[in-house]
Amino acid sequence: MIFFGHMPYPHTAWLLAGAGIAGALQLLLKTQAYKITEASLLSPFTYISLLWATLIGWIFWGSVPTIWTAAGAAIIIASNLFIIWREKRVKKT
Fold it and tell me: How far apart are CA 20 and CA 70, in angstroms?
């Protein structure tokens, strides 16, 4: 797009800047969270992006996941819930 692109419109530039700032902020906060706690407790929460991606895809583009996509997401979410449960159980003993 270097040769054929154009500068974003002013209202689009603000949206891009906001997305960049929000992305940088989430990266800093996530890095700080990994410093404070164990990765095995924190990493399952990164999979919440599956739910957000599905919701945003449905709202903005009307994209409904297939049964195979839903099954795969359910397996990933269930395994992460199991990890959280196991880590809590190990911490008690």
Answer: 30
Check residue 71 and give its pLDDT: 93
- Given phi > 0 = left and psi -120 to 50 = alpha, else beta, which region is 65? beta
Residue 55 near residue 61, CB atoms below 8 Å: no
Q: What predicted TM-score, i.e. pTM, was given to this entire model?
A: 0.55
Question: What is the DSSP track for 2-64?
Answer: TTT--PPPHHHHHHHHHHHHHHHHHHHHHHHHHHHS-HHHHGGGGGHHHHHHHHHHHHHH--P
What is the spatial distance between Cα 37 and Cα 40, in angstroms, rounded to a whole number? 9
